[in-house]
Write a structure and sequence with these properties.
heterodimer, A: mainly beta, six-stranded mixed β-sheet, 54% strand, B: mainly beta, seven-stranded mixed β-sheet, four-stranded antiparallel β-sheet, globular
Chain lengths: 114, 117
């Protein structure tokens, strides 16, 4: 079945450093979503990418969807302590009995040292 | 305020007991989901529902049951048959189900942390 892998699993950075997490799917995705979960909290939707090669920005966050629509990345410029949390990517499964299901990556846990 | 509520936040049960986790939404969403989250793992889908009185098994449905008698409510019962029930349980809702052509943002509740001893 479809697998979505995220790397790295953990990332520790000093405040002000950049951070990138990568999401790789075993199958082509029609779209991909990113979520952020603060420590002790629940996932919150960040963005959805749909088009091949799409790049979207939200302030210091840059999201990319690969040309082949099998990978995606989230880049944070000049991290702040408020960026701490786990970042998940998620893609819909294709066809048949998989309709309606999202596959989540295992997440990248980001810690930021002040 | 529109949103999803889950109760209780923390739940403790003895092994062998069934327990029901509450999930209510006032977003008028058709689709609702239950996920399980274990440390170091992503979200694993337990059950989901597109419409009242209809629900589908997710990837790890064994030992769990759900009902969808009202659009707003999607309670999850963790039965004694679930071998390792201690986990963080998240309920979510969206306008519609994730599909091949389009996907919908999922709104998550605050979660219930279940501990079974």
């Amino acid at each position: 079945g479809q697998q979505v892998m995220q790397i790295p699993q953990y990332q520790h950075v000093q405040e002000g450093e950049d951070f990138t997490t990568y999401c790789n799917s075993s199958t082509t995705l029609s779209n991909i979503q990113w979520y952020k979960q603060r420590p002790g909290g629940h996932p919150v939707f960040l963005i959805q990418l749909v088009k091949s090669g799409e790049v979207k920005k939200q302030k210091r966050l840059t999201f990319q969807f690969g040309e082949a629509k099998k990978n995606s990345s989230l880049h944070i410029t000049a991290t702040q302590t408020t960026d701490v949390g786990t970042y998940f990517c998620a893609g819909p499964r294709a066809g048949g009995t998989s309709y309606g299901k999202l596959t989540f990556g295992q997440g990248t846990i980001l810690t930021v040292h002040p | 305020d529109g949103g999803i509520t889950q109760s209780p936040k923390y739940l403790f049960r003895k092994e062998g007991q069934n327990v029901t986790l509450s999930c209510e939404q006032n977003l008028n969403h058709d689709a609702m989901y239950w996920y399980r989250q274990d440390p170091g793992q992503g979200l694993r889908l337990i059950y989901y529902s597109q419409i009242v009185n209809d629900f589908q098994k997710g990837d790890i449905a064994e030992g769990y049951s759900v009902s969808r008698e009202k659009k707003e409510s999607f309670p999850l019962t963790v039965t004694s048959a679930q071998k390792n029930p201690t986990a963080f349980y998240l309920c979510a809702s969206s306008i519609g189900l994730a599909g091949a052509l389009f996907n919908y943002e999922q709104y998550f509740g605050p979660g219930t942390r279940l501990t079974v001893t």
